[in-house]
Design brief:
By secondary structure, this protein is α/β, with parallel strands linked by helices. It has five domains: 47 residues, no CATH class; 84 residues, no CATH class; 106 residues, Endonuclease III, domain 1, CATH 1.10.340; 201 residues, Ribonuclease H-like superfamily/Ribonuclease H (Nucleotidyltransferase, domain 5, 2-Layer Sandwich), CATH 3.30.420; 45 residues, no CATH class. Helices cover 40% and strands 9% of the residues. It contains 19 helices and eleven strands. Helix 11 crosses helix 12. The protein is flat. The relative contact order is 0.06.
């Protein structure tokens, strides 16, 4: 029984929603014959079970926190219920840490609340009355701690810390030097630094020369403390500190401290480019040495029941093969790849795809062993690894949307036309058309004139000329791809750091799937240790 009416049809109707599908799979674990709808007012038992938690702290139900006498009888019954099953324990309650408190009524109304509830307390048995009174006394005696502001920086230790700092004592011993007298001042046994807040200004102010032993405590007070810093940026901490303290290389010290803050790493949104330079895949020497494979979809279902497109791109010639399919299962993928690609162009040397279940499965593994090719996978959550195919997906979807009839969703009728137009066009990276690199000459299009006739003395001359032409085309295409990759790398790597990971380094992993604005961006603790860093040939 449920008071949620749509839940009655969850086992009868098909709903295209991932969350509903997960809920359906969960319900299937139980033997449920039928889901019956009842009104919410009669659905009391599930509401009680979902509303009352066994781990609820009884202190929040005390009268002084603002709950009136109408909840006291329920509180007493719940306590007796927990005592019966040994779930209620004063010792465990006293050991719990209080994170925060909330006052639901002003202090002037507390007397009225106590008077209203005195009669209810008198009507209960003596044991429950003693329990509530003693519980109130425990709350009054307990110290409520708060981490709103905790200042760890003690200015009374400045004199002692300066006397123990060798750099400051060196300045004190050589204070008679002209350079020191122009830069430092000694007052009440404390060394001050003379600084200019602005470069055009000639006015100097005196700020305390902070000893190196107190730098961390000051930065902790200015950055970690909620009232002073609240984990803001380097510039805000620097401008707060510079009017009062100074030490050598102060800006860089603050910057290193902020960058090392774990909370800032976990929650801050990076406004800079992501680290690591671009590493391009080396172009292969010939066609079908390396191909990329990916799915595009789901698209609107056509009258031919097609909903997905299997896209296969050759990394040398950029020649594209697109196959419209009704689904993207492992069986459909293996059958389409064998019939529409291998049987037409031969067996490729290496296949690059993502880690989807339609590519990474037992059927594809057995096909790899049986036919004889190497199947490698792109980096998880990094589709740029197979960027050649991903870029074509973005291209042909926009072209098909211009040609299809939106009323009938017949995009699959224009799929091969769009692919042919792409293959016969000059590619930006290779400076040749994919058709020309694969077949040795340009394709004849409807607006072309009659082809020029070539005569050869021997029939073998055409074959030799074709091989020579393809060899020149492929080498020129490879050189053009390398030049384009070099230009792309220069643009991509500009103003981008490139950290080198070593064996044994601890890193924070990105948290995927978080939807809340206050959720962690990275893992709370370093939970991934780089054991080995390998470089692949592709």
């Amino acid at each position: 029984m449920t008071d949620h009416c749509p839940l009655c049809y969850i086992m009868q109707k098909t709903i295209k929603n991932a969350r509903v599908n997960r809920l359906t799979h969960l319900i299937q674990e139980y033997n449920i014959d039928k889901v019956v709808h009842i009104r919410g007012r009669y659905n009391c038992l599930p509401d009680y079970l979902s509303g009352y938690s066994k781990e609820q702290d009884d202190e929040l139900n005390d009268i002084e926190y603002g709950l009136g006498s109408k909840n006291l009888s329920l509180l007493s019954s719940l306590r007796s219920y927990d005592k019966k099953f040994k779930l209620y324990s004063r010792e465990s309650s006293d050991n719990q840490n209080v994170l925060a408190t909330m006052t639901l009524r002003p202090r002037k109304n507390q007397t009225k609340i106590s008077n209203d509830t005195s009669h209810a307390v008198t009507n209960t048995d003596s044991h429950q009355e003693f329990d509530i009174v003693s519980h109130k006394q425990d709350i009054k005696k307990r110290k409520v701690t708060s981490n709103i502001s905790q200042n760890y920086f003690d200015t009374t230790k400045l004199k002692i810390a300066q006397k123990q700092d060798p750099d400051i004592q060196k300045i004190v011993r050589n204070f008679n030097l002209k350079s020191n007298r122009l830069s430092f001042v000694l007052k009440d046994d404390i060394v001050y630094k003379l600084i200019k807040l602005n470069k055009p200004s000639t006015k100097q102010i005196e700020v305390i020369y902070l000893p190196s032993s107190m730098i961390n405590s000051l930065l902790s007070a200015c950055h970690d403390d909620p009232m002073s810093g609240a984990h803001f940026s380097t510039d805000q901490i620097y401008y707060k500190v510079r009017n009062h303290f100074w030490w050598p290389r102060m800006k860089s010290t603050i910057e290193r401290y902020v960058k090392a803050c774990r909370l800032c790493k976990q929650f801050n949104i990076s406004r800079h480019k992501r680290s690591s330079h671009l590493r391009s895949i080396s172009p292969p020497d010939g066609p079908f040495a390396l191909i990329g494979m990916d799915y595009c979809g789901p698209l609107p279902r056509t009258p031919r029941e097609n909903q997905y497109v299997l896209v296969i791109t050759d990394y040398c010639t950029r020649y594209v093969t697109a196959i419209a399919l009704p689904n993207c299962t492992a069986e459909t993928t293996a059958q389409a790849f064998f019939n529409e690609y291998i049987c037409k162009y031969g067996i490729p040397s290496v296949i690059l795809s993502d880690r989807g279940s339609h590519f990474q499965n037992k059927l594809m593994e057995n096909s790899q062993k049986l036919i004889g090719y190497n199947h490698i996978y792109s980096t998880p959550y990094h589709p740029q690894s197979n960027g050649v195919v991903e870029r074509f997906n973005a291209t042909f979807v926009t072209q098909i949307s211009k040609l299809q009839d939106t009323q009938y969703n017949n995009w699959d009728e224009f799929l091969q036309v769009v692919v042919f137009a792409y293959n016969t066009g000059v590619h930006k990276s290779t400076k040749f058309s994919p058709y020309e690199l694969l077949y040795g000459g340009p394709a004849r299009l409807p607006f072309h004139r009659q082809p020029t006739q070539f005569t050869f003395d021997k029939p073998v001359d055409y074959f030799e000329q074709l091989k020579k032409t393809l060899r020149i085309f492929h080498q020129a295409s490879k050189d053009n791809i390398l030049l384009q990759q070099q230009a792309t790398n220069i643009y991509y790597n500009r103003h981008r750091c490139n950290p080198e990971l070593k064996s044994g380094d601890k890193v924070l992993t990105r948290v995927y799937g978080s939807k809340g604005k206050l959720d962690l961006k990275f893992s709370s603790i370093p939970k991934v240790v780089v054991i080995e860093v390998t470089r692949h040939s592709v």
